[in-house]
Amino acid sequence: GEEDYLTMVVLALRALTSLRQYGEAGNLISESLVSQRFPSAEQVNMLRMWAVLVSLRSGMNMAAYDSVRYACKLRPHSYAVWNLFNRVANSGGNAKSVYKFVLRCLLRHPESVPCMILMGHHCQMNGSTKLALAEYMRAYKAMPDEPLINLLIAVGYLSHVTSRRCTDRHKTACRAFAFLFHYAKLRQWSQEVYYNLGRALHQLSLF
Fold it and tell me: Which of 114, 57, 45, 53 is nearest to 80 (CA)?
């Protein structure tokens, strides 16, 4: 049956990838998808995720990028899938095409927190700190106790403090440290927290 065949295919893929036979693994995935022996969308999605893994390990970045975009469309709220997307995109994705894809996903799924964060990153890298903060704030409303989001907002405010466009530096700095200390509390004042706190103080020339 289909379940036994899928189990056999997955076992073969594990063996081939462990032996670094990525070409053979890719051919097996392609033949399995073309055969249409898997009526279940979940089974097809599993094979496509294998395609991402095999393409990435074999250095076929474009093939991996196409496969992982498909996975993102299926699971727009999955942090694991978007983390994989970032890994693939950083391995050779075009920044402009990555931005357009994330924007399309965000428009289709406005409640996707990973899309909000990625869009915020893009705005921050392009010097649009206020737009970045707007996206981070949207993510914060959905997940107020996520340490990373609190840290991103704090960094955004710190970046705004040092810009010429900031009209109230003291108020903005207070906002930055409010989120920074909330992040510190959520991370239980770990060594990572002290490092980021030190960077924040150094950025404002307080130490």
Answer: 114
Amino acid code (one letter) for 173: A
Placement of tokens 């108020």 in the chain = 171
* Beta-carbon contacts of residue 83 (< 8 Å; ≥ 6 apart): none
Cα separation, 154 vs 175, in Å, equals 7
Place of tokens 């924040």: 200
In degrees rounded to 5, what are phi and psi of residue 36?
Answer: 55, 35
pLDDT digits (tens, 9 = 90+) for 16-64: 888 888 888 888 888 887 877 776 777 787 888 888 888 877 777 777 7
Nearest to 147 by CA among 183, 197, 189: 183
CA-to-CA distance for 141 and 118, rounded, in angstroms? 16
pTM value > 0.90: no
